[in-house]
Amino acid sequence: MTTPSPIDTILNPGSVAILGASDDLAKWGGSMLALLKKFEFPGKIFPVNPRSPVVQSLPAFPSVTAIGQPVDVALLAVPHERAIEAFEDCARAGVKAILMVTSQFAESGEAGQKLQDTLVDIARRAGIRIIGPNCMGYFHSHANLCLLNAQALMRNPVLHKGSIALISQSGALAGAMLARAYDLGAGFSFCVSLGNQADLEVCDFLEYAISDPQTRVISLYIEGVKSPQRFIGLLRQARAAGKPVLLVKAGRTDSGKRAVQSHTASMAGAYQAFEAAVRYESAVVVDDFLELVMQAVAWTSLPPPTGRSIAVFSGSGGGGAVASDLVDEAGLETATLSPGTVQALAPLMPESCAHLPFDLGAVPASHRGTNAQWLQEVIVGMMADPGIGAGIFVMTTQPDMVGAARTVMAASQLCGKPVVFVNAASSCGSEATDVLRAAGMVRFESIREATRYLANRLAFEQRAGVPLLEAPAPAVPAVAAMASGLPVGLMSEYQTKQLFAAAGIPVTAGQVARSADEAASAARAIGFPVVMKLMSAQVSHKSDIGGVVLNVRDEAAVRQNFGALQAALAPVPGATFDGCLVQQMAQADAELLVGTHWDAQFGPMLMFGFGGTLVELQRDTALLPASASRPAIAEALAGLRLYPLLTGFRGREPADLERLVDLIHRMGQLAVQLGEQLAECEANPVMVRGNSIVVADARAVWKEKA
Amino acid sequence: MTTPSPIDTILNPGSVAILGASDDLAKWGGSMLALLKKFEFPGKIFPVNPRSPVVQSLPAFPSVTAIGQPVDVALLAVPHERAIEAFEDCARAGVKAILMVTSQFAESGEAGQKLQDTLVDIARRAGIRIIGPNCMGYFHSHANLCLLNAQALMRNPVLHKGSIALISQSGALAGAMLARAYDLGAGFSFCVSLGNQADLEVCDFLEYAISDPQTRVISLYIEGVKSPQRFIGLLRQARAAGKPVLLVKAGRTDSGKRAVQSHTASMAGAYQAFEAAVRYESAVVVDDFLELVMQAVAWTSLPPPTGRSIAVFSGSGGGGAVASDLVDEAGLETATLSPGTVQALAPLMPESCAHLPFDLGAVPASHRGTNAQWLQEVIVGMMADPGIGAGIFVMTTQPDMVGAARTVMAASQLCGKPVVFVNAASSCGSEATDVLRAAGMVRFESIREATRYLANRLAFEQRAGVPLLEAPAPAVPAVAAMASGLPVGLMSEYQTKQLFAAAGIPVTAGQVARSADEAASAARAIGFPVVMKLMSAQVSHKSDIGGVVLNVRDEAAVRQNFGALQAALAPVPGATFDGCLVQQMAQADAELLVGTHWDAQFGPMLMFGFGGTLVELQRDTALLPASASRPAIAEALAGLRLYPLLTGFRGREPADLERLVDLIHRMGQLAVQLGEQLAECEANPVMVRGNSIVVADARAVWKEKA
Q1: Above 0.90 for ipTM, yes or no?
Q2: Which residues pair with B498 in a beta bridge?
Q3: Are A693 and A602 found together in one domain?
Q4: Which of A89, A266, B653, B673 matches a 20 to 30 Å C-alpha distance to A698?
C-alpha cells in the first residue's frame, strides 16, 4: 500500500483542527468552523480555544497538543505574531498539514519574509506541509470539506459537487470565481487559494488534479510560476490525460507585473515566453478571471463541437445578425443549411424563414403550433444537419423564454452537439436562466464570450494528437566541439555563422579580408556580385552606420568599398577595424529573422518572422519553445501575415518550405543543445528565394556557464 | 409659430388611437393599451374595436373614423391582410402618424414589398407619417408615453425618465437593451424601434435627438443606412452639439451582411467605409448591443476622465493585477501616486500598502477604523491626486460591499472624476449593485468593458475641437480641364500621373518612348539611372509579368531592356505593346500606397499605407473620408505600424512629413473634386526618402457620368 500524497491527506483529511476557533462568525476561526459544520464534514472536527471549552456547540480543546488524537489538517486563524508558537504546537502535536490564512508574511516585506522562512523551517523539520500563508483556504466538494472563507459559500446552503478544479494564487479571485460558478449552478471538484506558496504551490495541486478522477477540467489563476519546468511538464501530463487546463495569468503587462509583485511576491517573468510555452502544451489562456469560470463551466456542461460551422439562431433578427458578425470575427464560420435540412424543416416554417441565422421571431404564429414543441422540432431538425458543428442561441426578451431554455438543452442532448445559450435578456430572462442553472448548464451573457469559448474548444480538440514539441535530439558533435571553445560575449557574424554551419544551417559563403587585396581575391573566388561587410567587435548593427555594401559588381568596386568601410568606422568612438567580410550576394523574395533566446523561466525559446532589419516594426513574428516540432513550426510560419511571400505571391517563385522549416528547426535544436550559455542568437536576414535559403547575417551572445 | 415636426407630434401626441385594442394582454392591441394606461399617458386614448364598446375599462370606438376627434398617432395592431383598409381608414380620419407593428412586408419578399409600397402611397397622399412596419413601437419617457411592446416595460412598474435616446432597427434588440438598462436603473429619454423604415428612418429620430434637450447621449443600433449623406451630416451636428453618438452596426462581416439583408431588408454596404465615415464624425462604434447600453449608461452617469492615467483599486490584489493588465491593454495608463498623495494617505494605511493598484484587502484591520469611513477617506484622498484621470474599482466578494458601492459613488462626486465600478462578485454583490441601481449609476460586470468605456470616452473628449474633415475646396481648374477629356475605363500610368500633376501631386519625371532610340534619348534627358516600364492598355499590374526594370544605368542597357520589355508582353494573350515609359529612378526608405475610391454610400474615401506592392499583405493602412483634414491625415499616418520608417528609424533620413501629408491631402481633394466618376485611383508606390517624395507609379479607373 502506498502512503497517501500530502495533497490527498489535505483534501481528504480524517480530522481538522481549528486553532482560533470562535463563536464569532465575523472571525476566521468562527466562519471556517461554521462552514465545516454547515457542509457536514464527515471527519473529526477539533475546535481549539484556550478560553472556552465549547465552541459552536462542539467540545473545544485548550491547545492543539491537548487533542490527543491524530490531526491531519490544522487551520491556523491566529494573528501573525503568534504564528511561530502555533507552528511549534502543531509540530509537537504531529499535525500533518497546516492551512495558514494569516497575512503579513513574505508579501509585506523583508520582516514578513523572515518570519515566513522561520515557519517553513519549523514545518519542514516536523514533516508538516503548508498551504499559504496569506490565503483564503480551500474546499473539496466530494469530501464535504470546506475550509474556504468565501461569501458564496456562506450565502448558499449547498456545496455543489463538480468536476472543475480551481487552483488560484488569489483568494479573493477564487471567491469571485466561486460566486460566478454558483450563479451558473456549477460546482468545483476542489478549489484552493494558495497565497504566498511558502511550501505547497500551484504545481502540487495541479498534479493532484490531473490524476483526480473527479476532476475533468482544470482552471488556474496564476501570478508567477515557481517551478516553470515542472509546470510545463504537468501541462503535458494534463494534455496526455485529456484534461484541458484553462488559465489566467496576471502580470502580462508592465503594470500587471508591478501589481503581482506586491500582491503575492511573485515574479511574473516574461509573459510572451510564458504564453508560448503553455500554449504549446495546449493550455487555454483566458484574460479575465470571470471569463475563466464561464469557459470552464461551458467545457464541463457542453460536448465538444463537431466542426467549425456554427448555427446561429435567435428570437431576434438583430441578435442573429450581431452574433453572425461575432462568429466571423472569432475566426469561426457561420453555418448554412443543407438542402436536405431545408426540406426537413419545410413543414415547420415558411421557406422565407428557413435559412441561418434563424430569426425565430419572424416565423408567423400560424406555423408555430404549441410554441415549445415547435421550437424543439425546429432546433433539433436544424442541428441534425451534418454540416453544423455547434449552435449559438441568442435569447433576447421574447415569449416563452423558459421553453426556449429547455429546448436548447434538449436539442444539445439529442444531437450530441453543443448549443451555447446566450442570455441577452438580462434579468427578464431570469426564469429561463434558472432552468439552466438547475441543470448546471452554462449560459453566457456576452455573445463574444460564447464565440471565444467555441473557438478555444475547437482549437483544443484540433490540437489533440498533433506533436507540438520534441524530445531532445542527440547532441550534434560538431556543435559541441565549437561550443567548448567559444569566448564569452558578443559573437561576431563570422563566428556565429561557423556555429550555424556546424549545426547544418546554411549560411552565405564568405571570407574574411584584412586588406583590399585580400578582399579582391576573396570576391573573385566567391564570384560577383558580392556583399562586403565591416568587421568590428564594437559594432553589432553594421547596417546602421553604412557598414554593409550590397551588390558589389567588380574588383575595382571591391577595393573602393574596402576603403569606404574603413572610413565608415571612423566616427564610432573606440571601435577597431578588423577588416571586412566578403560574401556571396544572396537574392531574396522574402527576408526573415530566425532567432533564439534563453528565457530565465522557460528555457530556450525560438522566434522567427518576416522583416529582416524591419522586424520590430513589422511585428509579424512567432514565438515557440525551441523544442518545437517541424509541424508546429510549419503551422506557426503559415500563421504569419507575410507568409504569402513564400507561396508565390504576385509572381514570386514559391519557397522550398520544407527547407525553410528545417533551417528554423535546426536553430531551435541548436538552442536546446547549447542551453543557457547561448543567451541569444539571431540569423537576420535569412534570404529566401525559391529553394535558395541561406543565412546572410548573424550574431549571438555566449554566456559563462552558470 | 412653427408647426411641430412629425417626430415631435409622434413623441408628444395629444391623442393615441389603438386599432385592434383588446382585453387580451397576449395580443399587441392588449399589451400596448395596458402599457399606455400603466405609465399614465396624460393624453387621450382611443381604443378601436368593432366588436366591443369597452376595452380595458375604456370606452372603445367601432372604427378610427368614428372617433370624431383629432388623432395624432394610431397604433395599428391588425393583421397584414387588413393593413390597406386600416391605412385608408386612418387617412379618412385625419390621423397624423401611424405606428405599424405588423410584419410580413418588405422583409418577407416581393409580395410584402408591394404591399408596403401601397401603404406608403396611401399615407403619403394623406400626409400621414409611418413608423414601421415590422417594428415593436416606441416610448417617450418624458411624455409618459409608452407604445413599445417590451418585456422589461411589462415587468417593471416605472417608466424611467432618462437622458439616453435609443434608436434601433431591431425591436427585439431594443427590448434586450431596455432590459439591461432597467437592471442598471437607467432610463431613456425616448426609444424607438424602426423595423423596415418604410417612411420615417433612423435619421429622422437622430435629428430629433440632437435638438431634444432631454437627450444627452444618443445610441443607435443600425443594420443599413438609408441616407448616408444625411446620416453623416447629422453625426456632425451631434458632435457640434456635444452629444456623443454610440452605435452598433450589424453586417460588419459577410455573414452579418447576409443576416441583415433578410432581417430588415437592409443593404449593409461596405463596413470599412461606414466605420471610417462615422469615426471621423466622432461616433463611438461598439460591437455588441448590450455593451452599447453599458457604455451609454456609463456616459450619462459618470463625468469625463480628466486624463489617461487610471487608478486601479480592489479588495483583491489579484483583481488589481488583472485590471492593471487590462488597463494597459486598452491603451490607457495605470496611475501611480504622487509623493504628496502618499504623504496624505500616510495616516490611513501603512506605507507598504500605499501604492497603486490599491489592494484594500491587504491593509491590516488595525488601520481601517470604521470601514466605510476609512474607505471613503482613502479613495477620495487617492482620487484627488492631480495625476489621476479616472478610477476603476474591482469589487470582488469582500466585506461591506454596500459600503464600497456608496464610497465609490461619493468619491466620484467629491473629486469630480469618474470612478468606474466593476462588480466581479456576481450575485454576492447584489445588495451593492442595488445601491448603484437606485442611483442610476453604471456598474460593469467585465473589467474589459470598463476599460474600453474609458478609452472610448477619452478618445471622444480628446477629439472635441480637432478639425477632422474639411469643407470642399474650390475646384482646381487644371484638374477640371483634364477630367473633361478623359476616356472611360482603366487609365494608364501616364494619364493618371498627368492628372496627379494637374492636382499638384509630385510624380516622377518621365517620357513615353515608342522605340529603343526614343528610349535612349529620353533616358539621357532624364539622367541615369532610370526606370523603364512596359506600356500596354491590357496590363495593369506590370511588375507581375516583369514589365518594370529598375536601375537602368546606361544607354546600352536602355536599348537592351526595351527589347526585353517587348518580349515580356509576348505571353499575354491579346496585349498590344504601346512602347515604354522611361522615368527618373526615385530612391525610397519607405514605399507607400495612396489611393482613393468612391463608396456607393459614403462617397469619396481616401486610403493610404505602407507596403508598395505588398500592401495587401502588410495590412498597415488607414481609411478616411477623402475630405479628411491635414491634421486628421497626419494623425492616421502616425498610427500606422511602419510609421517609424518616416521618422529616422535605424539611421534613415527623416521624411518631410508635411510634404507627404500634403500629397495625401491633395489625393483626397482630387477625389472630392472629381466625384463619382473617379471610381478609384492609386499612387503606388509613393517613394519617400527625406524630402524627396514622389509618385513612381499610378493607375485609375474613370467611369461614365451617372
Answers
A1: yes
A2: none
A3: yes
A4: B653
